[in-house]
Amino acid sequence: MTLHIVTTSPFSNATFKSVFARCSENDGIVLIQDGVYALNHADVVNQLTRLQQTLGVACFVLADDLIARANQALPATTNTDMIKRISMEDFVELTLNYKATISW
Prior knowledge:
Layout (H helix, E strand, L loop, with lengths): L1 E5 L8 H8 L5 E4 L10 H14 L2 E5 H6 L14 E4 L1 H10 L2 E4 L1
Parallel strand pairs: 1-2, 1-5, 2-3, 3-4
């Protein structure tokens, strides 16, 4: 169980392809900093949905970073049951609950 912490925008590089290739069963993905822009990228959201359905990959987004980037509401096309908003305290707890973390 690995927690993938994504800090980069899918609009600026191909990091998400690498993240998706490394995901295994019951991993987690946390979108922080510019990674929250992934919620505005249809291909990334679709891939996150597939990973959750096939491998049980959980997806989280840091609420403070959504607000800081003027993206306070998840886009209408985003399944809010799939992507959970978390606080900084939740984020710290997640890092303790997974066996390993990888920052992208």
